[in-house]
Design a protein that fits this description.
The chain has 193 residues and is of the alpha+beta class. Helix 1 crosses helix 3. It is built from five helices and eight strands. The longest helix is centred in the first third of the chain and has 16 residues. It is globular, with a radius of gyration of 16 Å. The chain has one domain: Aminopeptidase.
């Protein structure tokens, strides 16, 4: 991919591409939010809660970027540039006739309800549509996750349906609401090389 993945700045946030140098900070973020994320995430192995795991994972996400398969970011408050407060990923990036990616995100429990994730997602979605020239971003959430439902609706995502027993999370198959947002200014002629 010839596009540079760079820091995205918002009013209150630095949205940084992942880098192994942030492995310890991500481990601290995950440990702090372990209980908070339990209901939404797969049951992690003990290795998940180690610095080597996050260093290796960030290296893989950097390779995904280099090979055009995705983009991963971590979020910092501008006045606290050492403490991760969230993450955003564009995964399963597909070109060809689809031109789409799947959106994932997480925010520290202490920072919910302040509009920070919306602010960060607006920057990442603008990058996805204006720079990466994607046509479609998909995002899915569990039906009882009202925070995600509201956030995605405020960002303009449309509900497309429901997938029964979609993902195995926290010990059971979980239903998910399927949503998407399309790029109204998509132009095939503008696709990156």
């Amino acid at each position: 991919m010839t596009i540079a993945q760079s820091t995205l700045l918002t009013e209150r946030l630095q949205v940084e591409p992942v880098d192994p140098k942030w492995a310890a900070a991500m481990l601290a973020f995950q440990l702090k939010n372990r209980d908070h994320f339990t209901q939404w995430d797969p049951s992690p192995s003990q290795l998940f809660y180690s610095e080597p795991y996050w260093s290796a994972r960030f290296k893989l996400r950097m390779r995904d970027w280099q090979e055009g398969r995705g983009a991963a970011y971590i979020l910092f408050l501008k006045d606290q540039p050492e403490q991760i407060i969230g993450s955003i990923s564009l995964s399963n990036l597909v070109r060809g006739v689809l031109q789409a990616a799947t959106l994932g995100y997480a925010i520290d429990s202490d920072h919910q309800g302040h509009g920070l994730m919306r602010e960060a997602l607006e920057a990442v979605l603008a990058f996805a549509f204006e720079v990466l020239q994607l046509h479609r971003i998909q995002a899915n959430y569990q039906p009882h996750n009202q925070r995600s439902a509201g956030l995605l609706a405020r960002l303009g995502f449309s509900i497309e349906g429901q997938a029964k027993q979609y993902l195995y999370l926290n010990g059971a198959w979980r239903d998910h609401v399927l949503t998407s947002l399309t790029n109204q200014h998509f132009n095939l002629a503008n696709l990156p090389v």
